[in-house]
Design a protein that fits this description.
four-stranded antiparallel sheet; 122 residues; alpha+beta
Length: 122
């Protein structure tokens, strides 16, 4: 069975940023079958804000979970009525702790691993 390719847009359109339901995140993708994605930082109203945190979020993710050295990092745009805070928001000084951390006593590395979920559409 052949895996489905992950497809990406070239970038956000002007209509994406004008849509209040559309937010941007720094994301991490872990390969596997199926691949998994984690929202590390966000949500942000502007794509540039997410882009500006990719390097820092990657460094924090690698401190928390050394396995993330092999993961892919970038940004994603998501349209939703219920945007969850990124799992590393508090560690990045964004002031929005992830719900998973607030509800449980997970250590930081299991918190990152806990929020990894399947890539939408896979």
């Amino acid at each position: 069975m052949q895996a489905k390719p992950i497809t990406f847009k070239d970038g956000p359109s002007k209509t994406d940023e004008a849509n209040p339901r559309f937010k941007f995140y720094v994301t991490m993708i872990r390969s596997g079958t199926p691949p998994k994605v984690a929202r590390l930082a966000g949500p942000f109203d502007h794509h540039e804000d997410a882009i500006a945190l990719v390097v820092r979020a990657r460094a924090v993710a690698q401190e928390v979970d050394p396995r993330s050295a092999w993961d892919a990092f970038g940004t994603s745009g998501i349209e939703s009525d219920n945007h969850r805070p990124g799992v590393l928001n508090e560690r990045l000084g964004l002031g929005q702790p992830a719900a998973e951390n607030a509800r449980t006593e997970l250590d930081a590395s299991s918190a990152v691993d806990h929020v990894l979920g399947p890539v939408p559409g896979m």
